[in-house]
Amino acid sequence: MIRLLKIELQKYIAYKAFWLMLLFYTLILSFMIFGIPGLIDYIAEKSGEPSRFRIFKAIVFNFPDIWQNISYVAGARFFIKIILGIIIIILVTNEFHFLTIRSNIISGFNKSDFLVAKVELILILSIFSTLVIFLSGLYLGFVHSVSKSMIDVFGKMMFLLGYFIEIFSYLSFCLLLAIIFKRTGITFIVHFVYLIVEPILDYNLNEKITPFLPLNAINSIVRTPNTSLIKVKSPDFNFDFQEFVRLSDVGLCIGYAAIFIGVAYLILKKRDI
Amino acid sequence: MEKILTIENLNKKYGRIRAVNNLNLEINRGDVFGILGPNGSGKTTTLGIILNVINADSGRFSWFGKPNSKQDRKRIGSILEQPIFYPYLTAVKNLKIIADIKGTDHSDIERVLGVVELLERKDYKFRTYSYGMKQRLAIAAALLGNPEVLIFDEPTNGLDPKGIAEIRELIIRIARQGITIILASHLLDEVQKTCSHVAVLKNGVKLYAGLVSDVLNTTDTVELSSENMEMLQKALSGLDAVIEVMTENDRFVAKLKSGTSTTELNKYLIGKGIILTHLAKRKRTLEDQFLELLTEHK
């Protein structure tokens, strides 16, 4: 496992485009997270009711709710994580474009070695992304949170694990697309088209089925957070907010990741390289 | 003799085209084995199958007399149709990846770069290389970890005459070290100059396999001329050992059944009162043989 990862990382350590894309991703992600306080301040000023928004700010960055709030922002829709998806699509389709997958196999890889190395790459990127969220959360929390007790700081960190699984399953989806379509451009197109198609399906299909659509499943591990401002429950506004990461959501996501990777393996195995 | 590669009843279809048709082949340690055939005869497909990048429809192959595993490929070095490397990495970094996959020590990298004379350019990115250098880097990669078998697929494709000569010389040098070589080529001359054994493929079918020297000597062709050509022609056509007589310039070229010696022929002609002014044995080149094999199997 470690051997495969070492070989895999050697392919990218001197690859400038990879680092640029990763830097771009990190910047956008941090900008998004660190931009929230500024954005709230800005709205507060414009609204003429600054005190109300100051409370909101305190709530958003309060431990332990902060973990849910920032993992929701970081994973919301596809605005940011799509950059990671694009990185994976480029790195995997590169192997087909340069034919280096062939050279890997001729030198002594099995097709499964090739795939496992790519899964490890996805793992590393998911860990990296989670780490960025974790560190930003720690910083913002210690700056803004009212409570700084250990129990609160480490409470609700399950959401970070949920976020990690969300990113990992999404990247497995990208890996599968890249292995099916092999060409960078076509894979991008299919990916974007699917991003449009699934909401249409979501709209038209039975509500019992829609939570099982892959991207819906991936996006619903970390749901719209429950901040005190919108916590108000009334007979007209009765909506259950998520307090914990649900095991069934996580299970569904891991199931999808397993299917994506399994199908990718079967395709690689059957195909002439 | 130790068997390096055994191929049994191998088949591969692309749609309706049979790229490899029930192929059987045996290659022994130390052979310099040429796989000869025109473009599209199934050479590259066969190599792809034995290197596990193409799945056969049916049939088997085994390396080193053992069931198939990825460990086999670590004992084989291959140079395929085109050099394949990560364009954005330097030669050394590319070779490190291959060495790590093969499980070979990195110290071998300097050696193989030295063999192909690329040490000076080792820290340049692959995409800055000329075609000849790319090809040489591919050879360096194949030599990593002292493989027992080297596979060349059209190794001189796209090279200039100097490059071609260098590569052929290199192949012969490697073969002398006892490394088994499998060389696919559509160039007869190349196989004739470098190989000990040859298999001729056409449309995926093996037409012939054996020693290159056997192919060269199966039948004999002699050139003859005499002051009295008419008598000579009559005498030749009355002889059982003569298969065919053709006129070439002012000479006859006669194909003889194998085993017929020129001495016997001369004696027979003298007995008929014909004095030859010219008698020469013509060694059949592999090219004649090859073309003949291909036309016979149309």
Write the layout of secondary structure elements.
The complex is a heterodimer of chains A (about 270) and B (about 300).
Chain A: H1 2-13, H2 16-47, H3 50-60, H4 65-75, H5 81-97, H6 100-107, H7 111-144, H8 150-154, H9 158-181, H10 184-204, H11 214-219, H12 247-270
Chain B: E1 3-14, E2 17-28, E3 32-36, H1 43-50, E4 58-63, H2 70-73, E5 76-79, H3 91-102, H4 108-115, H5 131-143, E6 149-153, H6 161-176, E7 180-185, H7 188-194, E8 197-202, E9 205-211, H8 212-217, E10 220-226, H9 229-237, E11 242-248, E12 251-256, H10 262-271, E13 276-282, H11 286-296
Parallel strand pairs in B: 3-7, 3-8, 5-6, 6-7
Antiparallel strand pairs in B: 1-2, 1-4, 8-9, 10-12, 10-13, 11-12
- Measured as a percent range, the helix fraction of chain B is 25-40%
**Number of helices, counting only DSSP H or I runs of 4 residues or more of chain B:** 11
> Approximately what portion of the residues of chain B adopt beta-strand conformation?
25-35%
Shape of chain A: globular
Using brief descriptors, characterize the structure shown.
heterodimer; A: 273 residues; mainly alpha; 75% helix; globular; B: 298 residues; alpha/beta; 6-stranded mixed beta sheet; 11 helices; elongated
